[in-house]
Amino acid sequence: MVSLALALVLTAAPPAAAHGYLYRATLVQAAPGRLLDVIDLYRSLTAGAAESGDEAPIAMRHSQGDRWDLLLLFPMESYGAYYAPARIARREKAARSRERQLARLRDAVTWQEDVFALGPRLEELRGRSATAGFFHVEMFHALPGRLSDLEREREMENAYLRALGRPQNAIFVRDQGGSWDLFTIGFYRDLKHYAESADIPEASQESAAKAAGFEGARAIGPYLRTLIGSHHDTLAVAIP
């Protein structure tokens, strides 16, 4: 039997700085040849989101990198708000009216992973995604005891990006589910916008890195790797 002390450790909340808006991040891999079917089914289900009382997800499609085909961020706000009796009743009613679509979706998906994570306010995320057509997603497994340091490093990188006039990353810290401790999403207009960092003078990068707390621009990557056991990078595009 798990002791009470161990249970408290296993259910401990993430670092205080991570507390914010709650999302369910769902990674989906479509069955072979069924990706367009999955996208159409999610579109159809999202169109009726208001009926369920839930917010429509923010969605993106894998371009290159990790194994997943779709990343969907379902806004929850908080556990208390999402699982309020009235919202549960509306959600269940909406699901009953869409049983056939949900069954088709289950048949078209070969793999799925859900991570409940705390991230930016919904209005901020909606604003950034509204003008984005390209995304850079990074997902991390922190080394034991280094999650708070990893979160701090991600904030330092945002300070570095801000100093260079580059888009900052939205940071999400795992609360439960999945295996990822933290993931970030960068929002860009397109691939060209994402690649513009290559044109920034080295002197500017060096100055911005030191101002953000790094030893230098070339030290950012090596320092990050002292905090993580593994990570995946994925480039993704908006779903029209």
Textual characterization of the structure:
The chain is α+β, with helices and mostly antiparallel strands and 240 residues long. The protein folds into 2 domains: 17-119, Alpha-Beta Plaits (2-Layer Sandwich); 136-238, Alpha-Beta Plaits, CATH 3.30.70.100. It has 11 helices and 8 strands. It has helices at 4-10, 35-47, 49-52, 79-82, 85-97, 99-108, 122-130, 147-163, 191-195, 202-211, 220-224; strands at residues 21-30, 58-64, 70-77, 109-119, 134-142, 169-177, 182-188, 228-238. An 8-stranded antiparallel barrel has the order 1-3-2-8-5-7-6-4, surrounded by 4 helices. Strand 6 (169-177) and strand 7 (182-188) form a beta hairpin. The chain is globular. The termini are far apart.
